[in-house]
Design a protein that fits this description.
Rossmann fold, 9 strands, 12% strand, alpha/beta, four-stranded parallel beta sheet, globular, 396 residues, 47% helix, five-stranded parallel beta sheet, homotrimer
């Protein structure tokens, strides 16, 4: 257990620059801060695995706002909140449209009187999701400064139109543990590629999150998609400049094969082209049901040209020793399993199925680390005290 | 902190007459009891603000029954329950009609085996909401006496057709703190007035709650509405007799200007006339969709005659030094913000926005005080022990 | 309180064979194990009634999956989880069809990273409900063995197509307490009979659960229904062989009167014939709305031949001294109360109403006992420590 205490001390020596700051985009955070999240998440997991309670709130709410359906992230958020002692209260916005201005300002305060954390998922409207989170944040700043709120709840981005930080950091922690250390990731090639799916309109936040994060953590990123299936242009450019700053490589090409060539890691996943997401956002805002149907139809026809963008055994043979680590944020569209023709073949998925489950298993701890680093000035010190206290999670 | 202990001791010296009694209408309670709620609510808030845990239940449910949509009250109830250590379990009645008799008797017991508190909102049907709460109460009495239930859960009225006690007492606590003391409220004039709204069918419970409560706490109440927009007649008469008993004034007139004249506090808010609510109740009970549409249409036409019942800067100039405190239970219909023409102008609302947020912020503590005074024989003693124990809400 | 300690010691002396095993069917468990559940449930109730906290989880989720509407069981599950310290997180499957294979395997893991217990209700499709629970169980085994999950959540069957173990064991605990001991149940006659209801399609799990359990606990079971209204044939045969093994009687006849003759306990309750449930399952799976309507119509016509299968005072006179204990899982269809013509007359129901409420009141504790025996190797030892600790549930 002295190893345990060493990790806690190691955390205590670092400054928690995340205190009282919302977690909205990984690229707004220093690498040091992101590393802090990884270490804190791992520690919280180690506490849990060793049956030591990390209940640090005796009461308090964790509010979740889901503007899109979700099972996995909902459970991850609930698990994280519960792990720290917060109770989830869901804010059901199902009936309301994107609300702005007065409504957001007021509602943000009304749900926050005894709230420590707010988790928001808003990934449907391009240009809206992240903006909405910032609006909520400003409303909370206002409420806290004017003494409406006794605390300023921290905001955790549970997926927006730009980034999916709880996913990409869970992915990074998975890679760190899989390859042994962050150091070991240096020079590794990751292929973030589009893949065929029989559905359309999947958000861009995962590939955008991956290219933005992995270029900063020593990896060479190869982004591949069929012509016209690009991500938000500014974020592609940003990834390129991250690569430059961090002496890694970032390339975009239109061939899955090229991207897979000698890759250490592959992340094949479907998404809708940026231009489609733009049109879709407009149609959704105008509640143009006909237009949406027509767009969906034309997109599915377009997608059907690229059914060969499937991660199968042939493609995997192209990767480093034919043994690249396959990643997915789940659920994957698996050929002959969840659909007739999908993102990945059954054989490839089955080989890496447990790996993808483990990948997902980091998310509750990443979210808990974001919550804790936001609300605690010195998480290391608090964990040290909890370690001393040694209250059992399960009282045996 | 000795001030803290003084307040606790002060509470301990008073008898808790609210123990084991449902909180359904403020006018069923003595002024002493209402004052007790205010002091207890304030203490719970002070504990929270000083990071001292008020978790007094180690387990137990707080059941909420919402027969009308709600965000604010839902969060207030959840916050209050969580503050004391109870877990909210929602009883979803969305699909059921107003149920009476056997169903209520049985269901009330079935949801209460391990339940300490039940919060009920039922404000749609005139003559039904409060009646329903009493039916639930009788069923719980029966279940407790016959040893079906190991405890008799306390009922908190979260808004009914007659009263909205958690709102009116939060309003009173806001006024107490704003003006410095209950003593200072003596002789203050409060204008509870109708205001124009582009919607219809808003419940009567807020104005009824305000005129019933403020006449008893030293304030002169001026109730104003367009002809025909009266409240439940018996409750208007009751307010008049409360004024008599308490040496305050109660007047009804049909002019917003008159009501605002020299007022210290204004509370302009839309509601549907009593006679409309009667018709609407019948139509809802008969599920007469056509009739409801026709009623809505005619009411909106009728309302449109009174768009000048708006709280704007002109009207505010009529008040005491042009500086009356503006109150609202939120959300307000704000002209040019949430609607084209509403209850209050943007300028007036913006000036008092933060005040209305603070007003709302008392509600979780009022609800928690109602819960605690119902379940604890001597809340002062319990708070004293919690103060000694000094467990931190957030473990730093 | 020494009596208390004796019961705890008594429990400690027994082996907990239920540790780490799902609770899916009573007939998969030894009588000793079922008795263990009864004793543990009673102890948890005694702790609660004596204001001693049984919070043994400091954090952790209890996931509920309801594939059918439910109020009672939902509250029982929530109460049980809360009593032990787990937070309920509902998995909303309302929009998904019966999912199998990959989806179940993945979802079961995704909701279980920090989950200790999963409660499942799936009673609509014959041949599917229990199968689904086993599929979830296998997925969890896989996830636990492959180190995806830090614990293997225990599964509690909250009602399936075959059995309703939380109901039948709550019923048995009710009988044990009503008659003084399990010993006293020996030789008692219980009439499990069909009864008329104006609805159709009620599941078979309650009568199947009762005949399977009571034949093993010393009771003579008389199962009665109109011709053609049989249960799953294999389960009727199983009850007969249980009777043989346990020296009790099991008979099937087509007369309510015969079944009631000299009965000590009567359990009259409506259900749909096995053959109808088979047809209904097919139609539901094929989403054949027309077919379902036609089936319902023909069944209601068929049922109408048996409106005299009502438990009224006349029928009750046939029972032992006219004083048999009436049981029901609630809600009952009460003639002239909840319907025009139903399972039981108002007079009979009213006489036994409180008994049926008490019967229902055991369910939260039975569920809690199932949770605890699954997650704790030696519940007696843990309860002993909790008794020593003597933390109050309500901090007075």
């Amino acid at each position: 257990m002295t190893d345990f205490q060493k990790q806690i001390e190691n955390l205590t020596r670092q400054n928690n620059e995340l205190f009282s700051k919302d977690f909205l985009l990984t690229w707004e955070k220093n690498k040091k801060d992101l590393n802090y999240i990884l270490e804190l998440a791992q520690l919280l997991k180690d506490f849990r695995d060793n049956n030591i309670s990390t209940k640090m709130f005796d009461s308090g709410l964790a509010v979740s706002i889901f503007r899109d359906q979700s099972t996995r992230t909902r459970f991850s958020f609930a698990s994280a909140a519960n792990l720290l002692g917060l109770e989830v209260q869901d804010m059901d916005e199902s009936k309301s449209q994107i609300a702005h201005g007065e409504t957001v300002r007021e509602t943000a305060n009304m749900i926050s009187f005894l709230t420590d954390v707010i988790g928001i998922r808003d990934d449907i409207f391009l240009g809206e999701g992240n903006k909405y989170m910032r609006e909520v944040g400003e409303a909370l700043d206002d409420g806290f400064q004017q003494e409406v709120l006794p605390q300023r709840p921290g905001i955790v981005n549970l997926q927006c139109d730009m980034d999916h930080p709880t996913q990409s950091l869970a992915d990074l922690l998975h890679l760190k543990n899989h390859f042994g250390s962050l150091e070991n990731l240096k020079g590794k090639k990751i292929a973030m590629t589009w893949a065929y799916s029989p559905s359309y309109g999947k958000p861009l936040s995962v590939p955008q999150g991956i290219i933005s994060l992995m270029t900063r953590f020593g990896m060479d990123v190869s982004l591949a998609y069929p012509e016209g299936y690009n991500l938000i242009p500014e974020l592609e450019q940003q990834a390129a400049s991250f690569a430059k700053q961090n002496n890694t490589k970032f390339e975009i090409n239109n061939s899955m094969d090229e991207a897979f060539q000698d890759a250490d890691i592959v992340y094949p996943k479907s998404w809708a082209p940026f231009s489609v997401m733009q049109q879709r956002t407009l149609l959704l805002q105008n509640k143009d049901a006909e237009g949406l149907k027509a767009l969906e139809k034309s997109c599915l026809v377009q997608n059907a040209n690229f059914t060969n963008w499937e991660c199968d055994e042939e493609k995997m043979k192209l990767t480093k020793n034919g043994e690249a680590l396959y990643m997915h944020c789940l659920p994957a569209d698996i050929t002959d399993v969840s659909c007739k023709q999908g993102e990945v073949s059954e054989k490839v998925f089955e080989k890496y199925r447990i790996d993808t489950y483990k990948e997902a298993g980091y998310k509750p701890y990443i979210i808990a680390a974001m919550m804790m680093s936001n609300r605690f000035d010195d998480p290391g010190e608090t964990l040290g005290k909890l370690f001393e206290k040694d209250k059992k999670r399960v009282f045996l």
